[in-house]
Write a structure and sequence with these properties.
Radius of gyration: 17 Å
Largest sheet: 7 strands, mixed
Number of strands: 9
Distance between the termini: 51 Å
Number of domains: 1
Number of helices: 6
Helix content: 25-40%
Order of helices and strands: EEEHHEEHEHEHEHE
CATH superfamily: von Willebrand factor, type A domain
Strand content: 15-25%
Shape: globular
Structural class: alpha/beta
CATH class: Alpha Beta
Length: about 230
Amino acid sequence: MDKEYIKGERLNPVIRHPTESKCPVVLLLDTSTSMSGGKINSLNSGVNLLINTLKNDEIAHKRVELSIVSFNSVVDVIQDFAVVDDMPVVNLNASGSTSMGEAILKGIDLISKRKAAYKSSGIDYYRPWIWLITDGEPTDYSETMRNNVIKSVHDGENNHNFVFFAVGVEGADMQTLSEISVRAPVKLNGVNFKDMFEWLSKSLSTVSHGKINDQISLSKPGWGTINP
C-alpha cells in the first residue's frame, strides 16, 4: 500500500499522510436564495482562498482536513474530509430555504465518524472545528429540532468533542446563533469573506503547527463584530 494512504476499518475513508496528526474542519455553508449574487460569489472566492492558502503551508496542507456541507432546502455534503491538496475548486450556487438545523447535526455526525476513523487507524488529531456561515434563520426549526441542535452543540463543546463557531452575514438571526453557539457568534462586516477566510487559514495554520492539546490564543476577528 502507498505510504501516503491508509484506510480506516468499517468507515473505509481514505486518509492522506497518516503519519501526521489531523485537524478536521467542517464548513457549514448557507446556500439559500438570500445568499444569491454578491454573497455567494464572495463566499466561493473565500473558500477557495482558504484552500489555496493552506496548500502553501508545508505542515497545514498535510494536517488540516476539510469537509464542506452546503445547506438550503436540502443538506449536501459536497466535499467529504480531505486534505486541501485533493480538493477541487468550490463553486456553490444559491437557491431554496435554510435547513440549518439539519446541517448542524450533519456536521456533528461527520466529525464523530471522522474521529472514529482516526482512532481505528491510530492517528492522533486536534480538537475538530465546526464553522457555520449563514445570512438567515433556520427554516427547519421545530421545537424538537431546536432543542436537539442546542443540546448537541453545547454537549459537544462541554465534552471537548469539537469547537463550534457561528458567523452571521447581513440578515442573519443573531439571536438564534447566540442560542446555538457556546461562544458568541460574529457578525460579518458586509460580505468581507476574504478577510474572514484569511483569518481562518492563519488560525488553522497556528493550530496545526502546534502540539495536540496546546492552548491556542486566537487573534480578535477584525473582519466582524462579536455579538454580545
